[in-house]
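step=encode ok
step=design start
structure_in=
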């Protein structure tokens, strides 16, 4: 069944937000997946990841947290991420969840989130805030404080990198400890010998094919099980 993709608009905290929606047309209800972009913005790579998940049978929505701005410059990306209003970003994500829930082809009881880098940070945070999210698969995102983690409402598979200078082994260890401490269902999977953004195949300096392929298999298996 062919996947159909389009840009959509949805309500987010009293304002309009946009996102890239892709999924099979017809054929009954399927799980919904929020795909949150890196600090570069909603670029072609983020859309490609949503396309790949649609190929696995999801209705995938990649919300645009930057309201149309995209960059390839790391300094501008850092500035955009730092200037992003947390409440606005969470309102966009909540709006995206509500939009997916309202789609005829989506099973509203089977919603998950994934994200990369900055998007990974939000994928984990959203799972502490929004009870509609049943599974969260963050890729090398920052770890929120324990007082947030104790409110986790979803199963978690955290994908990390051993040689990540931002999302360090200490941070990932704290996440592991919090999952245990608060009795949350989750796992931290750390890939040895790779660094931050190892999944991004548009960045040859960071990409690791073997780790990326294994992470893709692991995340899809996790989501299938968590949403079954």
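sequence_out=
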């Amino acid at each position: 069944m062919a996947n159909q993709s389009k840009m959509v608009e949805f309500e987010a905290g009293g304002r309009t937000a946009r996102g890239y929606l892709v999924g099979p047309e017809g054929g009954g209800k399927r799980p919904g997946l929020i795909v949150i972009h890196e600090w570069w913005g909603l670029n072609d790579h983020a859309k490609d990841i949503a396309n790949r998940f649609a190929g696995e049978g999801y209705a995938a929505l990649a919300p645009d947290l930057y309201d149309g701005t995209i960059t390839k410059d790391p300094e501008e990306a850092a500035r955009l991420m730092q200037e992003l209003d947390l409440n606005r970003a969470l309102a966009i994500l909540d709006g995206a969840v509500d939009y997916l829930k309202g789609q005829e082809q989506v099973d509203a009881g089977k919603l998950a989130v994934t994200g990369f880098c900055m998007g990974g940070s939000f994928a984990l945070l959203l799972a502490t805030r929004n009870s509609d999210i049943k599974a969260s698969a963050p890729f090398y995102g920052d770890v929120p404080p324990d007082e947030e983690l104790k409110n986790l409402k979803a199963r978690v598979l955290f994908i990390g990198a051993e040689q990540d200078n931002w999302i360090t082994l200490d941070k990932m260890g704290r996440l592991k400890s919090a999952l245990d401490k608060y009795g949350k269902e989750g796992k931290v999977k750390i890939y040895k010998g790779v660094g931050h953004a190892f999944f991004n195949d548009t960045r040859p300096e960071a990409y690791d094919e073997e780790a990326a392929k294994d992470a893709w298999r692991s995340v899809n298996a996790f989501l299938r099980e968590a949403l079954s």
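step=design ok
step=annotate ok -> The first strand starts at residue 3 and ends at 12.
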